[in-house]
Amino acid sequence: MILPIYLYGQPILRKTTEEIENSPELKQFIADMYETLTAAEGCGLAAPQVGKAWRLFVVDATELAEDYPECKDFKKTFINPEILELSEETCSYSEGCLSLPGISENVVRPVSLRIRYQDENFVEHEEEYSGFPARIIQHEYDHLEAHVFTDRISPIRKTLVRNKLAAIAKGKVGARYKYKKQ
User: Fold this and answer.
1) pTM for this structure?
2) pLDDT value of position 182
3) Structural domains in the chain?
4) Active-site residue numbers?
5) N or C end of the chain: smaller count of CB under 10 Å?
6) Residue 102: CA atoms inside 13 Å, Cβ hemisphere, count?
């Protein structure tokens, strides 16, 4: 089932998330998140973006493999993730977000990371990522920490996107996918 994506201004996007345990409905929820992600043509989706304050996000960047070879077969579920280490080396890249339609800004992020998480079967993993997969993980992880990518842009850029953010929060901006507004 395709879930509505919560747009900027929804309180759930600023709520601290909680660790989750395995449950019968969780598998279906994860399947719904992947279906929603595909329908919205995104590469990552966090539980708060579909109304749940859970420490869970899914990524599917396989379609980006032509431009970013490190994304080949990069389709994963991250449950109760914890970023253990971030590289000192950073890079800037333009990011967008399904919860902030029509806005993209350059965001500086570490180029690599080490993360511990559980997969959809609650098997624990500790892995390292670099390049575009590391950026996607950090972006989605931010949602679990009650942040959106515009929190990470310069004060001048924040001023320039303030009106766009206000329009989204007031429901004056739509999206090409199923969404929930105020």
Assistant:
1) 0.96
2) 65
3) 5-180 (3.90.45.10)
4) 140
5) N
6) 16
**Closest by Cα among 61, 1, 74 to 36:** 1
What CA dihedral angle connects 66, 67, 71 and 77, to 10 degrees?
-100
Kind and range of the H or E run holding 82: strand 75-86
| Residues in contact with 108: Cβ distance below 8 Å, sequence separation at least 6, in sequence order | 90, 91, 92, 152
What pLDDT is stored for residue 181 in this prediction? 72
From the CB of residue 182, how many other CB atoms can be counted at a distance below 10 Å? Answer: 12
Q: According to the model, what pLDDT value does residue 180 have?
A: 87
For residues 67 and 159, what is the distance between their CA atoms, to the nearest angstrom? 32
Residue 149 exposed, middle or buried by CB count within 10 Å (0-12, 13-18, 19+):
buried
Q: Collapsing DSSP states into helix, strand and coil, what is residue 45?
A: strand
Q: Yes or no: say if 49 and 84 are a contact pair by the CB < 8 Å rule.
A: no
Work out the number of other CB atoms within 10 angstroms of the CB of residue 29.
17
Say whether pLDDT at 96 is over 80.
yes
